[in-house]
Design goal:
Layout lengths: L8 E7 L2 E9 L10 E5 L2 E2 L12 H13 L17 E9 L5 E7 L5 E2 L5 E3 L8 E2 L4 E2 L3
Antiparallel strand pairs: 1-2, 2-3, 3-4, 5-6, 5-10, 7-8, 8-9
Length: about 140
């Protein structure tokens, strides 16, 4: 019996001469979340954990595509840093001291860290218009 529910997207993926057909169906048709989808690979429902109905968010769908293209697991994002708003920190000023070392100024975190598209964590600080790379921030030394 063929599937009567309507798919929203079909993707044909060719990698090293092998073609895979992905069909995306809105998860809401199975009572799933509105922002997710079900994936059918070459006519078979994709359920990596063996569940009856696997629903994929956009990030999960990108993981499926990455596995098909690269034939390995996608790289994991850096874990959420333990810093939070109000933490005391020292940030680089962009200037260099007489000894050749970068100069730092004391300030406070103005918000939570944000994972940038470059894979680095960035954090807003008091007194700066632009966020600062968290890997350049030092803990406040009294």
């Amino acid at each position: 019996m063929s599937e009567r529910r309507r798919k929203t997207t079909t993707i044909l993926l060719r990698n090293e001469g092998k073609t895979v057909k992905l069909e995306l169906f809105p998860a809401a048709q199975w009572g799933g979340p509105a922002d997710a989808c079900r994936v059918r690979l070459d006519g078979c429902w994709h359920a990596p954990a063996g569940e009856r109905h696997a629903f994929f968010t956009p990030a999960g769908l990108m993981g499926v595509l990455f596995r098909l293209v690269a034939d390995r697991e996608p790289p994991q994002d850096a874990p959420q840093p333990s810093r939070r708003r109000g933490d005391r920190v020292s940030v680089p000023t962009g200037r260099v001291g007489l000894d050749g070392e970068p100069l730092y100024e004391r300030t406070f975190l103005a918000g939570a860290p944000i994972l940038g598209i470059d894979g680095r964590w960035w954090v807003p600080v008091v007194g700066r218009d632009e966020p600062v790379a968290l890997d350049t921030v030092r803990g406040w030394r009294s």
